[in-house]
């Protein structure tokens, strides 16, 4: 699967309250959550983002709460993937379970700029900054998590294999 | 090579005799927990799976504690969805109405989590139960749905980091100060994907409540769990509450840690974490002049009876500053009752504090004390992210219950020694 989109940049330690503030968690409707995605980090994000766009952030993206509303809101915004130098562990898990592609690369996180066009080969994890021509390898994904992706998420994995 | 507590608990919940960091293992889950925000997504995922019954209803715990008493129509609908499901599946561990307590204060109190347990919860502060010698970690709603279907979860075995607290605690220092100090040292991702194993004479000297506070904030260092060995104090707490057998695990003498850090408590003053990350911890002597509009005493971090006793000791005979709203939320009905019996509620009310119901309330900006733009709060809660307690232009500072109470009296962040003789 190939992903291509325009980059929105965020910094380090973007927490789940910034991704989707708890004041909106009285619903889990993706379309409602979408309207407030990244609101406390960039209030205009939901009006600027378009289908296919990519979030590139620093370290520890998605720290804080376990709310699955965070990857849901990002996915519903049309964001095709998130690239960061590291992810908080619950957000990391949730993204695989929800089918939101995420990639870890220190170099891409440091060098890719706001507005760059970036392509990602989801099967190899190769990240290409089309604007600058530079390429980055993302950290390999454990075999079991690759299976989760291939099966289409955790629930599909269980239904297909009769258990975890 | 021997195993750590975390590795031993994980191994005991698999078919394997041994596990090592990096292994991906399928584990049997003793308790699967969710609340009114995360349970609706888990229930929907469970229903999508098409399975008629829960794998084991006795292992599933739902607590309606976040936006309750229902703060608005949408929250009421979320709670109703969970309530209907809980009744349909005859959940005996479903907490609603007057039985609601803040989940991570409630479950230990009810004896629902025991040493050696493997617990997953669709709430990041599930790591609180590490203080009971359990392996407990936060997950998303889909992982929880999987556990509802199978009573199992998948885990990557984490590496462990050891933290040893030595020396005697300074006056007014508690578990909150020690954990804020630790997070200040290693940062909000200093424990990422890892287990914090916390020990030492100073930790042994703490009561269970203060230890629960420490494990509660392991997630604030990015950790998967924050585990404290279950000693005789833990057993004394757990035994009268337990309704099933349990096992105490101890790390092997030759267990492997990626790092070992020692702290001397003689250097640890009461701590305050500045906006907007818990790692921005400073000793109270270096806080300077910070005027506040609100104080919140409560939450899964510091809403137990021991916390209210400390706050009441400071507030007794004092008055909350006219410019401050001081909101006290006893974390569970049992805490509330005890606080009443011990005269603490009277002390709070006479001081001019507001008493709220057991609820997560303002901690995550739900209700019962939301901040306006530009306002500052000092809270005994666990997160001070942008917009956490209200308007994105407001600020949250974190502290333990003694500093919170003292600050309510002076109207600015203050050491308890300022208001106490």
Key attributes of the depicted protein:
heterodimer; A: 164 residues; alpha/beta; 7-stranded mixed sheet; globular; B: 421 residues; 5-stranded parallel sheet; 15 helices
Short description:
The complex is a heterodimer of chains A (164) and B (421). With 164 residues, chain A is of the alpha/beta class.
Largest interface: A-B, 42 and 55 residues
Order of strands across the main sheet of chain B: 4-3-2-5-6
Helicity level of chain A, as a percent range? 25-40%
Number of helices of chain B: 15
Helix-strand string of chain A: EHHHEHEHEHEEEHH
Assembly form of the protein: heterodimer
By secondary-structure content and strand pairing, the structural class of chain A works out as alpha/beta
Summed over residues and divided by their number, the pLDDT of chain B gives a mean of 98
Shape of chain B: globular
Q: What is the approximate shape of chain A? A: globular
Task: Describe it.
The complex is a heterodimer of chains A (164) and B (421). With 164 residues, chain A is α/β, with parallel strands linked by helices. In chain A, 33% of the residues lie in helices and 18% in strands. Chain A contains eight helices and seven strands. Chain A has a seven-stranded mixed beta sheet. In chain A, helix 7 packs across helix 8. The longest helix of chain A has 10 residues. Chain B is an alpha/beta fold and 421 residues long. Chain B has 15 helices and 18 strands. In chain B, the strands form five sheets. A five-stranded parallel beta sheet of chain B has the order 4-3-2-5-6. A five-stranded parallel beta sheet of chain B has the order 16-15-14-17-18, with helices on one face. The radius of gyration of chain B is 20 Å and the shape is globular. The N and C termini of chain B lie far apart (53 Å). Chains A and B meet through helix 5 and helix 8 of A and helix 2, helix 3, helix 5 and strand 7 of B.
């Amino acid at each position: 699967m190939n992903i291509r989109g325009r980059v929105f940049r965020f910094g380090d330690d973007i927490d789940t309250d910034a991704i989707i503030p708890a004041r909106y968690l009285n619903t889990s409707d993706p379309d409602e959550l979408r309207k407030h995605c990244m609101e406390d980090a960039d209030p205009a994000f939901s009006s600027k983002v378009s289908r296919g766009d990519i979030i590139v952030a620093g370290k520890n993206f998605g720290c804080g709460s376990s709310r699955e509303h965070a990857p849901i809101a990002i996915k519903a915004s049309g964001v095709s993937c998130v690239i960061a130098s590291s992810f908080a562990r619950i957000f990391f898990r949730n993204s695989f379970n929800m089918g939101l592609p995420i990639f870890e690369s220190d170099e891409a996180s440091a060098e890719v700029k706001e507005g760059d066009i970036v392509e990602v080969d989801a099967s190899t994890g190769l990240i290409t900054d089309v604007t600058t021509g530079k390429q980055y390898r993302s950290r390999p994904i454990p075999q079991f998590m690759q299976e989760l992706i291939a099966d289409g998420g955790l629930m599909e994995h269980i239904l297909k294999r009769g258990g975890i | 090579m021997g195993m750590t507590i975390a590795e031993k608990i994980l191994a005991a919940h698999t078919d394997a005799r041994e596990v090592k960091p990096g292994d991906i293992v399928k584990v049997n889950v003793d308790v699967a927990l969710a609340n009114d925000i995360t349970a609706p997504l888990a229930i929907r995922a469970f229903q999508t799976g098409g399975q008629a019954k829960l794998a084991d209803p006795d292992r599933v715990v739902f607590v309606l504690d976040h936006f309750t008493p229902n703060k608005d129509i949408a929250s009421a609908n979320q709670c109703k969805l969970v309530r209907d499901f809980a009744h349909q599946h005859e959940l005996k561990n479903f907490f609603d109405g007057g039985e609601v307590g803040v989940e991570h204060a409630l479950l230990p109190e009810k004896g629902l989590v025991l040493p050696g347990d493997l617990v997953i919860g669709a709430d990041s502060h599930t790591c609180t139960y590490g203080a009971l010698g359990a392996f407990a970690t936060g997950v998303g709603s889909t992982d929880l749905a999987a556990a509802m279907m199978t009573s199992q979860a998948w885990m990557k075995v984490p590496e462990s980091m050891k933290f040893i607290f030595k020396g005697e605690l300074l006056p007014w220092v508690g578990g909150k100060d020690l954990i804020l100090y630790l997070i200040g040292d290693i940062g909000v991702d200093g424990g990422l994907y890892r287990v914090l194993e916390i020990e030492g004479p100073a930790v042994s000297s703490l009561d269970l409540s203060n230890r629960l506070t420490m494990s509660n904030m392991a997630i604030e260092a990015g950790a998967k769990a924050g585990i404290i060995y279950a000693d005789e104090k833990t057993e004394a707490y757990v035994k009268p509450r337990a309704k099933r057998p349990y096992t105490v695990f101890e790390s092997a003498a030759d267990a492997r840690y990626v790092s070992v850090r020692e702290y001397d408590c003689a250097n640890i003053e009461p701590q305050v974490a500045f906006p907007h990350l818990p790692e921005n911890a400073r000793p109270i002597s270096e806080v300077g002049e910070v005027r506040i509009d609100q104080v919140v005493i409560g939450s899964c971090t510091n809403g137990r009876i021991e916390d209210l006793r400390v706050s009441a000791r400071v507030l007794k005979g004092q008055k909350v500053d006219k410019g401050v709203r001081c909101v006290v939320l006893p974390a569970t009905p049992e805490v509330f009752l005890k606080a009443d019996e011990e005269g603490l509620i009277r002390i709070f009310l006479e001081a001019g504090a507001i008493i709220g119901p057991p609820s997560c309330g303002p901690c995550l900006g739900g209700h019962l004390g939301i901040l306006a733009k530009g306002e500052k709060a000092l809270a005994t809660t666990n997160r001070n992210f942008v917009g956490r307690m209200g308007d994105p232009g407001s600020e949250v500072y974190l502290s333990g219950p003694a500093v919170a109470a003292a600050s309510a009296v002076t109207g600015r962040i203050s050491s308890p020694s300022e208001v106490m003789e």
